[in-house]
TrEMBL record:
Protein name per the record: Polyketide cyclase / dehydrase and lipid transport
Organism this protein belongs to: Rhodococcus sovatensis
Length: 129
């Protein structure tokens, strides 16, 4: 079992391919997780991406994109399973909270950027007749 475990989900009203494209840029990873070194272990395209994690934490991280055709978008599932690196004692409660917040920052940045210009409750542009 990992000391740091985060599981979260966010709905984004765009196709999985658009989220996958936005998620595929390593420069963004360094902004979202500046103290982590990520190595892609499985690029699943419109289904998401899996990484090996090194740096401040050691373990795995994944974004899984689950299509939701009835509402024309995807659920972005975020998973982080890691251990703190190094010999310094870590407050695991604080660390878990910070890592959950970092996951939400990533998800909502993607959501805001990809849904820009769409009013709440309005069908996504890709789903309009």
């Amino acid at each position: 079992m990992s000391s740091i475990q985060v599981a979260d989900q966010t709905f984004i009203a765009v196709p999985g391919s658009a989220v996958a494209e936005a998620l595929s840029h390593p420069d963004r990873w360094r902004v979202w997780w500046p103290d982590l070194r990520l190595s892609v272990t499985d690029d699943r395209a419109e289904k998401g991406i899996r990484w090996a994690v090194d740096g401040a934490l050691t373990g795995t991280m994944e974004v899984w994109l689950e299509p939701v055709s009835v509402v024309d978008g995807v659920i972005l599932h975020y998973f982080l399973h890691t251990e703190p690196a190094g010999a310094n004692p870590v407050d695991l409660v604080v660390e878990n909270r910070q890592r959950r917040a970092a996951g939400k920052v990533m998800a909502f940045e993607l959501k805001r950027g990809l849904e820009a210009g769409r009013a709440a409750g309005e069908r996504p542009p890709h789903a309009r007749p």
